[in-house]
Amino acid sequence: MPHTSDNDKKAKDNQALHEEKNKMKDLNRQAGKNQYSKKTDHI
User: Fold this and answer.
1) In the chain, count of helices (H) and strands (E)?
2) CA angle 6, 11, 13 (to 5 degrees)
3) Residue 25 belongs to what H/E stretch?
4) DSSP H or E segment with residue 28
């Protein structure tokens, strides 16, 4: 079995991915999406 190194893999920029994700999360929060509100209908 030939030895293969990981040197030919593309570098991932995780910081940029997380920044993009957090930006979308913040925009969705400001737009009021994904809000959790528990309605109590048993009282």
Assistant:
1) 1, 0
2) 145
3) helix 14-30
4) helix 14-30
Asked whether 28 and 34 are in contact (CB, 8 A), the reply is yes
Task: Assign 37 to helix, strand or coil.
Answer: coil
> Which residues fall within 8 angstroms of residue 34, CB to CB, at 6 or more apart?
28
In total, the chain counts a number of residues equal to 43
Give me the pLDDT at residue 29, please.
Answer: 84
pTM of the model: 0.48
Q: What is the DSSP letter of 5?
A: -
pLDDT of 18-40, one tens digit each?
A: 999 999 999 888 888 767 766 66
2 has pLDDT over 70: no
